[in-house]
Amino acid sequence: MREVDVLVVGGGIVGMAAALDLARDGRAVAIVDDGRHSGTTANAGSLHVQMQSRFIRLYPDLAPNVERSLPLYVAGAARWRELAAELGADMEIKQSGGLMVAEDEAQFSFLAAKCARERALGLDVHMLDRAELSRIAPYLGEAVFGAELCREEGKLSPLKANEAVRRALDALGVLRLGETRVGTVARDGVGILATLEGRSAGTLRTGKVMLAAGSGTGALAAALGVRIPTEAEPLHMNITEATTPLIGHLVQHAERMITLKQLGAGQVVIGGGWPARFTGADAFPTVDPASMIGNLSLAQHIVPRLGALRVIRTWAGVNTTADGQCILGPLPGWPEVFAAVPGDAGYTLGPLVGRMAAAILSGREPGHDVSRFGVERFAAA
Amino acid sequence: MSDVTFTFEGHPVAARKGQTVGAALAAAGQLALREARTGGARGIFCGMGVCQECLVTVDGMPNRRACLEPARDGIHVRRQAFPGEPPGASRGTPPIGFADLAVERADVVVIGGGAGGLAAAVAARGCGLDVLLLDERSTAGGQYFKQPAAALREPALDRQQADGAALRTRADSAGVRVLDGAEVVTAIDAGSVLATRAGRAFIARGRALVVATGAYERGVPLPGWTLPGVMTTGALQTLWRSYRALPGRRILIAGNGPLNLQVACESIDAGASVVAVAEAAPLASGERLGALTRMALADPALAAKGGGYLARLRRQSRLRLGVVCRRIEPAPAGGLRVEIGPAAGGPGESHDVDIVALGYGFQPSNELLRALGCAHDWDERAGLLRTRRDASCETTVAGVFAVGDCCGLGGAPAALAEGTIAGVALARALGGAVTAALAQEADRAARELARHRRFQAALWEAFAAPRLGLSLAAADTVVCRCEDVGKAELLAAAADGDPAIGDVKRRTRCGMGRCQGRYCGPALAEHLAAQGDRPLDERAFFAPRGPVKPVTIADLVGGGER
Ligand SMILES: Cc1cc2nc3c(=O)[nH]c(=O)nc-3n(C[C@H](O)[C@@H](O)[C@H](O)COP(=O)(O)OP(=O)(O)OC[C@H]3O[C@@H](n4cnc5c(N)ncnc54)[C@H](O)[C@@H]3O)c2cc1C
Ligand SMILES: Cc1cc2nc3c(=O)[nH]c(=O)nc-3n(C[C@H](O)[C@H](O)[C@H](O)COP(=O)(O)OP(=O)(O)OC[C@H]3O[C@@H](n4cnc5c(N)ncnc54)[C@H](O)[C@@H]3O)c2cc1C
Ligand code: FES
To answer: What are the residue boundaries of the structural domains of chain B, listed by start?
Structure first.
């Protein structure tokens, strides 16, 4: 039987980032990941800072939670830069700014109000009229009236970033068991015993457990009698063939669901929360052609030159939603089991949330106010 | 006889009406088209719209496939630097949703107008069903019938083309609604697909689907296989049979299977000098005699045809058995220098040629079937996934039928028989009027299918040769042609930990390019399976995701031109 100090369930960005810190502390760490429902391998690599209108529209009652978390996103983006430097890795991080575009005056005033609130929270945000916009973003089409610019926003390549963190984990000797599912975790008198299913089936004994299982966290917690309402949200993504540098910013819309940006390798990644669906007995995330049409149509409406490019691939990935805020800390009644789930735009937050989770597990100060993020809040609800 | 003139890099090129830009350029000796990510030129490889190696800029529009782009008078064609830039002045169109797309309804939607699709359409139509057939090419017919482009107004070259034309006429006169030039983008559900035609997207919706999307040639990476002038045997055949273009005078053909022999003979008839034919199977060895006999018993005419090709090539070319193409490099005096010899090593021979055609078997175009969730099983002998079907060619997804080579390779006679069987079976299921004559035809097709499957089994026993996988590639040979991922890099990523195929894709970008991993994916999947002791099930391959082929955003959302 394998024995480790900490079992991290879930090999997404949060689990990997937490494992990195734990291993650096000298602990024996295992990451077990079933490789099925990862947001980390599928995400678009947008560094989000300003509030996403998608979230405000979908879950208006949760918007205050997101708003309170905004400073965390600034720190999250900063942590990505720091991590790239620590690992000496080129993750193609670019904080060249994010534009949220408006198509008319009404949308513009919605953004202006949002901008004022975000500015009060310390974000580097500005409103741009059409003339200013044409100067810095000539690729935008006539349909665009104005925009909110958030300078801290940008992008990175999840392909490069994930790979760099994985290599660092391997170099530290972290045990990574892929295509393997954690079935149950239970106390066995000595510590915690986890059963593993799949490619590395067996059992594993550990002192502590970190549940960084994204949308799978709720089920694992439920088996321990603890409520964590994570939901799996399948999302649609599109990517075009590569082209010459065209789009310099992360582009979003004040009212409609879209994010688009150009990767370092030249492809334009288009997403923004359009739904995918689960199909088959094993709930395989599957793309929805309706999302492809709606999403791409909007993209060429905002950036007309995209019309001439070909989309070469779509994919579906699984996002995790709960109440818009991070979930961090021990499970009630299980002081050796910790939750680590990021809030909305969780890839931006991933390394920071992983770091905070590792600190909490190790009894250190997480460095940010996490008082609202505890698991207890759901029991009360 | 040129009736079209266009420019290439500013110089006039004469073409015939009906030819593609790629065919006209090939006939003019212009083989280098797009620039690759890491530099170097690429040219026509698959000749059928799959590989994306032939991209050119046409009147400022990047990423046009020369092998499909019609040669029109006065257009300006340019080589495409990597990565290709969209035209500056563009207007977007107002946002639309799925509900805004036109819907074409029918009882049955048939995807693919080759032997299988046409036969299915004719049979279903014969039972009174309303049949809509979509084919991406300008002239349906598929890879076996390879119809000459209509505008060329060329007579059929031979029986094979004449049969195809007759079947197409049968479909048209029976009232099958054939939409030429309609490219299926992705599957929506078990009855409908999303397609584009002439710059517009639409939904084709039926009560049943027949998937008959055929196959494409297997990629066997070997040093020099990305050089312009190196193409698949099928591409060479299409250039001549569909467009009457010969891409070069001196040709060497290497591969495995009878298509190479046929194309070699056709090329000689077309006036080319076929310098050598390298067949990987030893063929003549003693233990294969039994297989040859069984072939002759199952289908004497087809077996005799094959024997005829071999005899001709012995006289009119250099026929080399048990020999593969080991490397290709630019020849000092222009053209290509090819080395052929035993795969295991040992002395080979070298030839200077203009064109190398490679034909190491096929891969089924099963993307739609896999995306629809139809079950597949690995066929170790053929080295491909076979679609699981019942005797009526229905897949494991109710209402989705699959016929022909897209289900695993079976050959044109099998595709024809399967089409008839499926067409009649789905007519029964949908309440069509199955006449006694049609029921008899389906029974005959079932017997014909059994016979042809016996023939195919014996054929591939006779032509059995080790699958080459990545074995011919050198460390620096590009395996993923789109993203320029070399063998050494790929194998290093595959050996680092215990990665699944998606992990290797994300680490190296192998399979992320425009062709969607069609050439690198199968070889990588087999490599990972062998290395990590994984089953070669559906999960061992890249996930099936639309679009099946790259499609311009404007075409998809309604702003497309033409
Ligand atoms: C920044 C970024 C850029 C990208 N760029 C590209 C790009 O340019 N081109 C591109 O192709 N992709 C691209 N991708 C997508 C890439 O393939 C994956 O990273 C992405 O996670 C999701 O891909 P997927 O779901 O299609 O496949 P995978 O992540 O591989 O997941 C699918 C899983 O399903 C399994 N599977 C296969 N077939 C079936 C079946 N029939 N039923 C059930 N399961 C099956 C597979 O084995 C695999 O485990 C990009 C991703 C990112 C994050
Ligand atoms: C299509 C898409 C685009 C996105 N784009 C962005 C973006 O641009 N910017 C941004 O900031 N965020 C984005 N997100 C959100 C972001 O990807 C996620 O919030 C983030 O990756 C979550 O990381 P994680 O480590 O918490 O969880 P995940 O990456 O989801 O990882 C959890 C892992 O745990 C595994 N698991 C679950 N249960 C078990 C079990 N019992 N045993 C073993 N393993 C288990 C899962 O399969 C999964 O692999 C996007 C999400 C999606 C789906
Ligand atoms: S040669 Fe044109 S796509 Fe392959």
So the answer is: 4-86, 99-216+365-434, 227-359, 469-562
